[in-house]
Amino acid sequence: xxxSAAGAGGGATGPAIETHExxxxxxxxxxxxxxxMTVPRGEVFGFLGPNGAGKTTSVKMxxxxxxxxxxxxxxxxxxxxxxxxxxxxGYLPELFRYQGWMTxxxxxALHCELARLAKSDWGREIDDALSLVGLADxxxxxxQTFSKGMQQRLGLGVALLGGPDLVIxxxxxxxxxxxxxxxxxxxxxxxxxxxxxxxxxxxLLTEVERVCDRxxxxxxxxxxxxxxxxxxxxxxxxxxxxxxxxxxxxxxxxRFGRVRADGxxxxxxGIADADVPALVAAIVARGGEIxxxxxxxxxxxxxxxxxxxxxxxDAGSIGGVGGAGPVGGAE
Amino acid sequence: MSGARPILIVARLTLREAFRRRVLWALVGLTILxxxxxxxxxxxxxxxxxxxxxxxxxxxxxxxxxxxFMFSFVLAMTAVFAGxxxxxxxIENGLLLAVLARPIRRVDVLLGRWLGLAVVLVxxxxxxxxxxxxxxxxxxxxxxxxPLLAPPYLAAESLVxxxxxxxxxxxxxxxxxxxxxxxxxxxxxxxxxxxxIGEAFNxxxxxxxxxxxxxxxPSNVLWQGAAAALTPSEDVLNNSHLGxxxxxxxxxxxxxxPSAFWLAWCVxxxxxxxxxxxxxxxxxxx
Lengths: 331, 286
What we know:
Distance between the termini of chain A: 41 Å
CATH topology of the largest domain in chain A: Rossmann fold
Oligomer: heterodimer
Strand order of the largest sheet of chain A: 6-7-8-3-9-10
Helix content of chain A: 25-40%
Order of helices and strands of chain B: HHHHHHHHHHHHH
Structural class of chain A: alpha/beta
């Protein structure tokens, strides 16, 4: 069933990806269980999970590379595995490998041909892809001479050929250095601006947090949470920079939320937005001087760990004051 | 979407790989070596005794068949070694993941790989085979009964083994698939010899063993056709004082031209095996 040719009609509207109760079982091992999710068009969607959670198996089912044991789904309006729909999908596999006897340019040309792009467009597509992934200087070298990072860049170029409507990237930065990761973030931002849907499979939470509009967290084959970053990471409270007599802050403990020291800052967890002015007024009334008030948000990593039932190393600190910033927004 | 085009893309890719990896150059070198040795050997024979009488012709034909057997062995090994890693390793190392995510069916990949390798094998078999026959003819003056048919039979035999190896490569490791294909090739050759003995001595059991082996793996049908095409005509055999042509079948280097049934069976077998390979590959996790 994973090579149906039902046609990709009706693909222009509706979600880019929609799955219902997808299940994949290898013998007695359930790799993916009841995977139901919706990926809207034009968004960068993060698919998060620990190693062995079933992420890559899910991706393979979306592409028709692996047949689901049960369940159903649509990709770009066509049933899973539809051969025609793959013309509009770009894919970077987690296990990326390209013909070592070919040059980078030849690999891209092969995929132009496989993707059925018009031959007159090949030259431009290939040059654009090489330039985008930073391989223009090595385009005519055999890929067997490429480092792993360069091969992954080439794979990214392959996935972007022809301006696909949906790009599925499976751990796209696993072999890249920090510069390469930043390049990928810029590429993903560019794709979002062009309205391309990106399905980003990753376990690098900070990366996902920085680029994704929405995420699904999968564990042991099941989606345990999905939504926008803001929806998933609840506001935790506020941090204040306060000077003045100790009683100015001691008296507020318990009235607005749990108060704890965080270095030179004072953290108030669990306070409602509406109570923040009263908190500030209470501190000022007791002689405290307030220099800054910053709302704090749970980081994606903290939320991820709590969903998986794992205590993060630095649980209890707000220190990921990374969380204090606009975590929901991309760069 | 046209069904043929993806097959041709993969076939062309396979051919380019063969060129780029210098497989064809290796085959050209081997061909030159074999043809030169054939010409040299037959020149020496012709110097010792002119190849004009039936006994000499039979003797020379046996040497030619033996050389053809060695050539068929090289072809068979080439087919197996080219076919065994055609699919499986590309799946295991991830090479096929990016390809199969394109608008291409798995059967296209299988048939494309088969077609590309088949072109290499057939071209090699025909060019080397005809050059070898020409060298033997030029050096000794011996021309077998059906010189034009022998190389195509050898080429077809290599296609049977290529098909077997590629089907194995969809599910089992290259080493295991290659080993099974080589052993199978050897077994059916021996069963073919046994079948020939069964014909000569009218033994139903041995004859049956030959038939069953040809049904399972028809490579020997085609080898027998090549050997038959390389032997002298029946008149020569009748005058060679070796007894009836049936007794000649006792020789492991004898041959018998395949009937239309067996030729059709070879085609059906190849098509059926490719269908089996496509089914196996379709069900394989990548």
